[in-house]
Amino acid sequence: MSAAQLRESVLRVRATDGASADLLLVQPVATVRDVLLWLPALGVAARNYLPLARALAAHGVATALHEWRGAGSSDQRATRALDWGYRELLAYDIAASRLAAQGALPQARLWLGGHSLGGQLATLAAAFAPTGVTGLALVASGSPYWRTFRHAWLIRAAYSWIPWLAAFCGYFPGRSVGFGGREARGVMMDWARSGRSGRYAAARMPYDFEAGLARVEVPILALRLADDWLGPLESLDWLLRKMPAAPQETSLIGQDALGGAPADHFAWMKMPLGIAIDIAGKIIHKQ
Predict the structure, then answer these.
(1) Rounded mean pLDDT of 7-14?
(2) Beta-bridge mates of residue 220
(3) Which of 192, 248, 271, 280 has the least CB density, counted as fewest CB within 10 Å?
(4) DSSP string, the chain
(5) CA distance linking residue 60 with residue 67, whole number of Å
(6) What does the alpha-carbon distance between residue 127 and residue 177 come to, in Å, rounded to a whole number?
(7) How many CB atoms lie within 10 A of CB 2?
(8) Pick from 191, 211, 214: which is nearest to 142 by CA?
């Protein structure tokens, strides 16, 4: 399918608390049967996934690129006075993007997916608000639980100093330390808590995510990158074991599927065709 057979649009999405950001929608001109709401990795702006969205749309799957609060087109920026956590991301922002995607393509089945932290938040969104979710597509994702990584003691230490740094600065200066972007301290505290305990919870959100994950029954496609030390098999397994009722399919992606690009945590984003074909093939197969 050529670029002329794709349609791209920008939808301004406003959450119930007033925060707003762009939702980038890429779709085939032909009838759309499936739309994938894609959640970025930590600190990555939505526009960086346009190559993936175009490749997916060229293979029949419309893709809506969600923008994290505080990143890219978002009208929010983390400061000492302006903070948020998983509660706002899940209950407000992802919920608003879901409504916008479904409103734009009301006839299409909704899939949730994401990269790294985006994959984790996609599973939490499916647990928290399962109605209307057809399935999940995860790339380079998994639980941040420290015991699932090599050099586990270093990872465990990071879950102590990262929240401390965020509290000291009033936000997490990810660009300065080489991990993430300018992140809200509440997000980093929720993330670090799950990294220390291996369990998901969100501050000020009285919802049992572990019980919700156990009730997820939609099919899950999880793609792991062969050279991705940030997404080891043990980390993915820890996440998937939380959803025993869900049919699960996993694949290992190597350089051959990425046009020779390194099969690591981020390089695949520049050569996403192989991953798009894999995701689209599995989604279209579920007709």
Answers:
(1) 98
(2) 136, 248
(3) 248
(4) --GGGEEEEEEEEE-TTS-EEEEEEEEESSPP-EEEEEEPPTT--GGGGHHHHHHHHHTT-EEEE---TTSTT-S----SSS---HHIIIIIIIHHHHHHHHHHSTTSEEEEEEETHHHHHHHHHHHHS-TTEEEEEEES-----GGGSTTHHHHHHHHHHHHHHHHHHSSEEHHHHTSSSEE-HHHHHHHHHHHHHS---BTTB---HHHHHHT--S-EEEEEETT-TTS-HHHHHHHHTT-TTS-EEEEEE-GGGGTT---STTGGGGS-HHHHHHHHHHHHH--
(5) 22
(6) 32
(7) 6
(8) 191
The pLDDT value given to residue 287: 54
Residue 160 and residue 249 in contact, taking contact as beta carbons nearer than 8 Å = no
Average pLDDT over residues 257-264: 91
Q: Are 32 and 107 in contact (CB under 8 A)?
A: yes
What number does CATH give the domain 3-152+208-285? 3.40.50.1820
pLDDT of the residue at 284: 76
pLDDT in tens, 137-195: 999 999 999 999 999 999 999 999 999 999 999 999 999 999 999 999 999 999 999 99
Single pTM value for the model: 0.96
- Non-local (6+) Cβ contacts of 6 within 8 A are 26, 27, 28, 29, 54, 57, 58
